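Dig into what follows:
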Amino acid sequence: MPRYFFHVDDGRLAPDRVGLDLPDLEAVRGEAVTAAGSMICEAQNTFWEHRRPFVMHVVDSDHRLLFTLAFEVRVPSGEARFVPRSSESEEPSAPARSQAGHADASLSGQDDLPEGAIPSTSPPRRP
């Protein structure tokens, strides 16, 4: 049975030197989610106050990165509202506007923008 390692970084890297023998990727994913939930639960207030991402890098016995699981607390600095994305079948006629007057990236299809970037409402320029 293959062995997998779950390296954790919560501001301090804690390499998994022992690993677990698991039958397949589905079992590895389940173990990662279970372990991450347990670690966050054990951390309690530290996780909420620390405000650093909790990251788990999962590798196989050849040290190939299979996936990275990350959890992070983000507390808005002012009044914020959650605006869910519309379903794929619904196309908004115009991008929704936030209170600041900028297009909402989650509704304008620009959700790959870096954090804090203001999405453009004009079409991309052609060379």
